[in-house]
Recover the amino acids of this structure.
């Protein structure tokens, strides 16, 4: 039996905050986490924003509520801090679709290509890549690679196809995809848009090309909050994991948000509960570390991305 099952949510939240204070810790929550986790987070954001927050914080302990590659990215950028992932098995199926052996094989087939890896990859894969990217900066990262006319883009084929629309470079795709976003069909989106004809449709670039065709705006999870706040429409259909709805509704009380489908749930993102967070803090589990030899090379790929100028 879970030792903290007898606590109600309010008590758990209080105990977590107490423990965070006592240990000089912070709680970071990805935009797809359960609402009650997002509610008590010190910082909520996308995969890149959370890692940057982890790197800049004065806290010694970081409880990372997200999936494994995100906690690993935080550990790459902040090796001196304790990074805890409350559920070890919270992984990203798309990140698991590429391994080092596969990457080395495709690199051999295209020796003249530069490798751009999506942040949704393991540290070992990042270490074998030239530069990292996120959904927020993938196009800019690819176009920043002067002298490289050919790119191997791993692992998300949908994001890779999206990027190839905005570059003259040849993009070699990897057959990876996000099971949650790839499941969304154009038919489902058309049906919801038919029910809400005034609504705008905003989609994450991990969706299929035919779904992206229907979108008024395509962006990362953090970009969706920005768009929702700025757009003059009062109704939006959301083409990403439904965890984003928590903050969207909180920050835009005058607007209405509709799911593009009831299946837009990433089961891995929903694994971590309040009980897990408290257990993680009290027992310092599961500490995420990266072997130094891999960490330094993976950090180079991330630093390369961070050096690409932001959009004005
Ligand atoms: P973001 O980088 O936009 O947070 O997306 C991460 C992710 O896993 C999307 O499915
Ligand atoms: Fe991975 Fe998709 Fe879940 Fe994001 S939503 S963590 S890409 S499986």
């Amino acid at each position: 039996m879970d030792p903290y099952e007898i606590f109600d949510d309010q008590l758990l939240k209080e105990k977590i905050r107490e423990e965070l204070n006592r240990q000089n810790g912070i709680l970071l929550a990805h935009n797809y986490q359960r609402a009650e986790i997002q509610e008590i987070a010190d910082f909520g954001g996308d995969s890149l924003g959370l890692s940057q927050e982890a790197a800049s914080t004065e806290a010694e302990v970081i409880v990372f509520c997200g999936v494994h590659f995100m906690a690993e990215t935080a550990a790459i950028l902040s090796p001196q801090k304790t990074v805890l992932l409350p559920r070890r098995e919270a992984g990203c199926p798309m990140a698991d679709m590429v391994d080092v052996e596969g990457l080395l094989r495709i690199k051999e087939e295209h020796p003249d290509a530069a490798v751009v890896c999506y942040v949704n990859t393991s540290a070992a894969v990042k270490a074998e890549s030239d530069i990292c990217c996120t959904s927020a900066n993938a196009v800019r990262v690819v176009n920043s690679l002067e002298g490289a006319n050919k790119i191997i883009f791993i692992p998300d084929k949908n994001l890779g196809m999206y990027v190839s629309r905005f570059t003259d470079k040849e993009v070699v795709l990897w057959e990876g995809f996000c099971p949650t976003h790839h499941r969304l069909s154009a038919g489902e989106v058309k049906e919801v848009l038919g029910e809400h004809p005034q609504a705008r449709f905003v989609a994450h670039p991990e969706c299929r090309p035919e779904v992206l065709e229907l979108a008024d705006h395509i962006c990362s999870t953090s970009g969706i909050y920005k768009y929702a706040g700025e757009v003059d429409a009062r109704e939006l259909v959301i083409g990403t994991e439904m965890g984003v709805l928590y903050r969207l509704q909180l920050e835009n009380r005058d607007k209405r948000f509709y799911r593009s489908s009831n299946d837009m749930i990433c089961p891995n993102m929903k694994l971590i509960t309040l009980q897990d967070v408290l257990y993680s803090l009290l027992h310092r589990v599961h500490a995420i570390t990266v072997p130094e030899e891999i960490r330094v090379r993976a950090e180079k790929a991330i630093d390369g991305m961070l050096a690409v100028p932001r959009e004005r």
In short: The pocket of iron/sulfur cluster (ligand 2) is lined by residues 67, 92-94, 120, 178-181, 206, 241, 266, 268-269 (CB under 6 Å).
